[in-house]
Amino acid sequence: MNAPRSSIRSARNDPGTEPRAVRLVIIAIALVFLTVFVVLPLLLVFAQAFSKGVGAYLSALSDPEALSAIRLTLCVAAISVGLNLVFGVVAAWAIAKFDFRGKAFLISLIDLPFSVSPVISGLVFVLLFGAQGYWGRWLQSHDIHVLFAVPGIALATVFVTFPFVARALIPLMQEQGIQEEEAAISLGASGLQTFFRVTLPNIKWGVLYGVLLCNARAMGEFGAVSVVSGHIRGETNTMPLLVEILYNEYQFVSSFAVASLLAMLALITLVAKTILERQLDQRQYPSDD
Amino acid sequence: MTIEVRNLVKKFGAFAALDHVDLRVGDGELLALLGPSGSGKTTLLRIIAGLDWPDSGEVSIDGENALSHGAGERHVGFVFQHYALFRHMTVFENVAFGLRVQPRAVRKTEAGIRARVRELLDLVQLDWLSDRYPSQLSGGQRQRIALARALAIEPRILLLDEPFGALDAKVRKELRQWLRSLHSEIHVTSIFVTHDQEEALEVANRVVVMDKGRIEQIGTPGEVYDHPATAFVHGFIGESIVLPVEVSDGCVRLGGEALNIAADGAVSGASKLFVRRHDMQVGPAGSGALQGAVRRVRAFGPIQRAEIALSAGEGATVIEIDAPRDRELQSGDIIGLQPRRYRIFAVQDRT
């Protein structure tokens, strides 16, 4: 008796059975939005970069300033990914596998760089390491340059990109629990053996995912780096900073040529991210049932 | 190998998971820790394995203080409730794990490891699965692989946490028999945790019944079934009829009516009368200690299970009995009931 009525009701609520026109309009809105705000700008970057031909594009990229910026960006990204890989795995391990006081506090602390404006993150380092800053005098007297030098840029980038690896791993490790580790320990494995033979293989896709996002952000970071870099040409300009400088100097081809490298990084990241997400989904086979 | 536990205490906050527990396990025994959830049985097992640490007390394995060693140094095989197989390793590598992580000085050669793993997979009759991943196995197969993995390190003792808990009823029955025959084959001292009394009684040589962090009784399956030491054990093992009675001057009363049974030295005061369902002898009306009206009868196999409303206690007390089918009961019959065997335990508030 109730069956026909309930099936009518469910048909009406089923999103798949909206009128065709409504569906088309909704899809069209989404497409237009994506085109205007994502695809067009991306195309424009490449169009501008190649507007004077491939020769101009290549010479813009082989300019010493551009090369220096690329080198610096790669170097800073390598430092931040390396450090945050270690920090992130350690933090996620501690949070997911142990219970301790202050755990909730630590979890919110990990998210801090996400919730603070990057400019403020940069300013914090100025306050700490600047000439008038907290440790400024001591650093100066020992002739150590942090601000307006590579260490400062690396520090600011590490800070801003800290959450990525940890965030990718915490839910994964929490879901996996500690039973496999316990099994390994009871079979006589040492702590290191347990980590490298059991824990790490189980989280490797999560680690790669975190590293990928961390790397993308490290290379693209503007705000925090802008504050601490000092914009010394050929020395402390990263790629995003150089893009802005060149653009302000009306060197559009050069500016967009460098920008196109960052855009390509974004595209590669996107593809890699999709592949990794698929791997992560497949790898999460349940341990029982 | 013998295991000895003395005065073990473990608290989680205010909750006492183990409350001064003493236990001795003899060489080659197959012991069951039986109890409801929260009774502390898994905690006890994990402390023996070194996966948890007691607040106080002693654990010795083969006369040697186990608490001075970590889990990895105790040479204890542990089979986890959900098996905890390494999901990224094949069955073969799972079983080989304990051999591969040994210090180089004592580690077997690759050929030695392979031979040992083959031997173990033969033992659990799953050699044909060696290249599969845990996710490709059924529950029963995972269970046996987990066991093979634990046995690979030639453990001094074998500990199993709810070994059949996650399996369906049919597989569970098969594995029970299999575990028992495996134990008589390899004869390693073993302890398993279960909340299933049938499992404990059928598989174990001795059963330890636990409740609220204490051991209620230790005995052979026959002893704990036939001579339960406490009201809890009587209620937990086997299906019992429990009647609230009053004992005074050697007289047992139910709802004010005196029952024609001896108090058997039970102390005066509020008590509980425990009778096994099949220990209620059915007789004609007027005979026996209790009277009742049959309300419903279901007959299956060799017995008939009858619901009986007792006349004592204003007819509100309904019990279920298992009677042989030599005398068919009809609903509406008034019958007399005489407990063949029974126990009376004083009601005590144990806090």
Give an overview of the whole structure.
The complex is a heterodimer of chains A (289) and B (351). Chain A is mainly α. Chain A is built from 14 helices and no strands. With 351 residues, chain B is an alpha+beta fold. Chain B contains eight helices and 20 strands. Chain B has a six-stranded mixed sheet with strand order 6-7-8-3-9-10, sandwiched between helices. A five-stranded antiparallel sheet of chain B has the order 13-12-11-14-20. In chain B, strands 15-19-16-17-18 form a five-stranded antiparallel sheet, with no helix packed on it. In chain B, a hairpin with a 2-residue loop joins strand 9 (206-211) and strand 10. In chain B, helix 2 crosses helix 3, helix 2 packs parallel to helix 4 and helix 3 crosses helix 4 (139-152). The longest helix of chain B has 18 residues, at 169-186. Classes of the chains: A mainly alpha (289), B alpha+beta (351). Chains A and B meet through helix 10 and helix 11 of A and strand 6 and helix 4 of B.
Note the topology.
The complex is a heterodimer of chains A (289) and B (351).
Chain A: H1 2-13, H2 20-49, H3 53-61, H4 64-97, H5 103-115, H6 118-129, H7 136-141, H8 150-161, H9 163-176, H10 179-186, H11 191-220, H12 223-229, H13 239-248, H14 252-283
Helix pairs in contact in A: 2-14, 3-14, 4-8, 4-9, 4-11, 6-8, 6-12, 8-11, 8-12, 9-11, 10-11, 11-14, 13-14
Chain B: E1 3-12, E2 15-25, E3 30-34, H1 41-49, E4 56-61, E5 64-65, E6 76-79, H2 91-100, H3 110-123, H4 139-152, E7 157-161, H5 169-186, E8 189-194, H6 197-203, E9 206-211, E10 214-219, H7 221-226, H8 231-236, E11 240-248, E12 251-254, E13 257-262, E14 269-276, E15 280-284, E16 290-300, E17 303-310, E18 318-324, E19 334-339, E20 343-346
Parallel strand pairs in B: 3-8, 3-9, 6-7, 7-8
Antiparallel strand pairs in B: 1-2, 1-4, 4-5, 9-10, 11-12, 11-14, 12-13, 14-20, 15-19, 16-17, 16-19, 17-18
Helix pairs in contact in B: 2-3, 2-4, 3-4
Give a quick set of tags describing it.
heterodimer; A: 289 residues; mainly alpha; disordered N terminus; disordered C terminus; B: 351 residues; alpha+beta; six-stranded mixed β-sheet; 37% strand
